[in-house]
Amino acid sequence: MDDFKNALEELAESEAEYSLEYQNLANIFWHSLSEEDKLFAFYSVLKRLTDGELKNHSSYRGILYDEFGFGPESYRIGMDCGFLELHNAIYIREELDEELKRRENSK
Question: Per-residue pLDDT for 95 more than 80?
């Protein structure tokens, strides 16, 4: 049992190191872009997120795969940068709004 626990701890540590390294590389990339390229990237990413979340009401995977054209490798990266948390917050907000509308209509 101790071997299994140690293996899990090592895995979690290596995942944390990978996430931090990926974040550092992404920041280096961002800072290497010109202002114009940053604006193009900003527009492109936000347009895809907005379409996926608000227009198409896609799932987390649907946005990664359909809107961005990524594969399974993007799942963890999306989690690390906070996209899954953002997606779930939007989904929860939509559910709350729908429930409030249902309650108002039932009065």
Answer: no
